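Researcher: Here's a chain I'd like modeled. Treat it as a single chain, no partners, no ligands.
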Amino acid sequence: MSRTFGSVTYTTVASSATSVALVAANPNRKKLIIQNTSTAILYVDLTGGTATATTAHSKQMAANTTWELDNFTGAVSGIWASANGSANITQIT
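Model: Modeled as a single isolated chain. Structure tokens:
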């Protein structure tokens, strides 16, 4: 199966001990790749709300891991267990 994409956008978001936006909603997004380059856990929230380490998160990403989401167009936020490193975000439209 072949896929055609319009563009690829790379961003880096510094880790934070408070919730931060990782990527805004994008109705044209085909794939989203989140790479946690921190040594701390990254808690990712897909609801468009505020991520928390306790209950308000959709995915817990271990240190130095990658998560790929196909056809998810919503906003994504995140919070780290401790602030070190960053998240590399690849957005494909």
